Amino acid sequence: MSAHSNNTRRHFLRSLAITSTIPLAMASRVVAAEAKSEKVPESDPVATAFGYKEDTTKVDQQKYPQHKPGQRCDNCLHYTAKAGDATGPCAIFQNRHVTAAGWCMVWVAKPEPAKQ
Ligand code: SF4
Fold first, then answer.
1. Using CA atoms, how far apart are residues 96 and 44, in angstroms rounded to an integer?
2. Is 73 close to ligand 1, i.e. is its CB under 6 Å away?
3. For the chain, what is the domain count?
4. Which ligand 1 atom lies nearest to the CA of residue 52?
């Protein structure tokens, strides 16, 4: 086999490896991004276990007496969306999205920003 055909074959194999690896890497990144921005449905098993409701006013007070009317995902420590966003990531749900107006039994008050 000549040096030229060896180089051609090596080049072909390298480009095959690159073209088959890139889409896979991109696809896994897209899947990870989609998983994170995926909205948590109330029917999700973890959501059900934590009494998650998309609307804090719909929380069952009998079942969750610790719930207070002003408690919402957007004033919970675990919620990391920008102020004003309708939904955002919740650390408890592996950064899947919950509604700003939602609530679950893991609610913890977000600390007030330090005054300067
Ligand atoms: Fe909402 Fe906080 Fe429960 Fe997450 S932990 S669902 S932000 S109340």
1. 11
2. yes
3. 2
4. 6
109 and 54 together in one domain: yes
CB atoms within 10 A of CB 17: 10
In terms of domains, do 72 and 109 share one? yes
State the closest ligand 1 atom to the C-alpha of 74, by its place in the atom list counted from 1. Answer: 7
Residue numbers of the domain that contains 33: 1-37
pTM: 0.71
Which of 46, 107, 110 has most ligand 1 atoms within 8 Å of CB, for mutation? Answer: 107
Q: Are residues 116 and 60 in the same domain?
A: yes
Higher-pLDDT residue of 68 and 113 is 68
The string of pLDDT tens digits covering residues 7-34 is 666 665 565 555 555 555 544 454 455 5
Query: In sequence order, which ranges of 38-84 are alpha helices (DSSP H)?
Result: 45-49
Cα–Cα nearest to 101, from 44, 48, 42: 42
The two structure tokens encoding residue 74: 């957007």
